[in-house]
Write a structure and sequence with these properties.
Keywords: Coiled coil, Ligase. The protein is built from one helix and 23 strands. With 343 residues, the protein is mostly beta strands. It has a six-stranded antiparallel sheet, with no helix packed on it. It starts with 9 loop residues before the first strand and ends with a strand.
Length: 343
């Protein structure tokens, strides 16, 4: 006599959450069920009410799905299987990925203090990070009188709940890139420019991040910006048509896309400087700053699609994303969740 098929799994709502454009789902078998389970199939729709598709098949009862759209509502469901067959689906859970709520009346200090952000739980790489309200009481950029400063100021005023969290991605980086600090710090073992991308891609909304220059020797010219996943990895960021960047030395900067250099601007970087990147996919613009001051005009317009934070650098430069100080006494989780990427 064959054993029965499993009972439908139960989604554990207290363990399910979203962070940035990732969703973590957790489930279990009904407490009174004694039927053996060999694995689970997790399904998500397309974030727009479309058809479900499989994003994970395996024995684990928790999974993080990466690469979702921002500001989108996804439906998730899971079913169990054994040698006898497949269970009915669990109840469907609706998840909202991070959205950039725009409000003219409410403006938070920036960076946003962690306790005021809309996170219930974080992914493993960011669990040690603690945003500090270092600039409470004023806009992150001082307001300037020129038109482009006013544009940047208004963008940051509407950025009242979203901070771009990411680590660098060894899987897509050039082989000469050196990773440390749990992939939060990068340098290079070559004198030639090499590209590394962040793990989180952005397709909607308003996103800001900073990169701290931890080492800067012999006046190199690193580049910072955004790129497609298939950008050239063995040339300066912006040399091809898959990247939009600002490259900068110790005295001045330029914008570069498809090997076209524009808007030379005085003001460079030194060790300890911070480079800010503001990607506004509502206005479809990209803007840069150095040490809290906007560098040049709006760098690029008419941006559309999926963009990853990107850096190119050589062995004379070391950078890391910066959101505040690392929280003391907190370690990374010991358990690594299975991960699935939706593309």
């Amino acid at each position: 006599v064959s054993s029965p098929v499993p009972a439908p799994p139960i989604l554990q709502l207290e363990e399910c959450c979203t962070h940035n454009n990732s969703a973590t789902l957790s489930w279990k078998q009904p407490p009174l069920s004694t039927v053996q389970v060999e694995g689970y199939i997790l399904e998500l729709d397309d974030g727009n009410g479309g058809q479900f598709r499989e994003v994970y098949v395996g024995k684990e009862t928790m999974c993080t799905v990466d690469g979702l759209h921002f500001n989108s509502t996804y439906s998730a469901r899971v079913k169990a299987f054994n040698k006898s067959g497949v269970s009915p689906y669990s109840k469907t859970l609706v998840l909202q990925t991070s959205e950039d709520t725009q409000s003219e009346e409410q403006t938070l200090p920036f960076p946003v203090p962690l306790e005021r952000s809309q996170l219930r739980r974080m992914s493993p790489f960011s669990s040690t990070l603690n945003l500090q309200p270092s600039f409470s009481g004023r806009s992150y950029f001082e307001l300037r009188s020129s038109a482009h400063q006013l544009s940047l100021h208004s963008s940051l005023q509407s950025l009242n709940s979203a901070v771009a969290w990411f680590s660098f991605d060894p899987a897509s980086a050039h082989a000469d890139i050196i990773f440390s600090n749990d992939n939060l710090t990068v340098t290079c073992n070559s004198y030639d420019d090499r590209v590394v991308l962040g793990k989180t891609g952005f397709s909607k909304g308003l996103h800001y991040w900073e990169l701290s220059i931890d080492r800067y020797d012999n006046h190199p010219d690193p580049a910072f910006g955004v790129a497609r996943i298939d950008v050239l990895k063995d040339a300066m960021l912006g040399k091809d048509d898959k990247a939009w960047a600002m490259y900068v030395d110790n005295n001045r900067s330029w914008f570069m896309h498809n090997n076209s250099h524009t808007n030379r601007t005085e003001g460079g970087i030194t060790k300890g400087a911070t480079v800010g990147v503001l990607l506004d996919l509502t206005r479809r613009t990209l803007t840069f700053s150095i040490n809290e001051d906007q560098q040049g005009p709006v760098a690029f317009e008419n941006l559309e699609g999926l963009f990853f934070p990107a850096v190119s650098l050589n062995r004379n430069v070391q950078v890391r994303p910066w959101w505040g100080s690392l929280e003391q006494g907190v370690t990374f989780p010991a358990v690594t969740l299975p991960r699935a990427a939706v593309t």
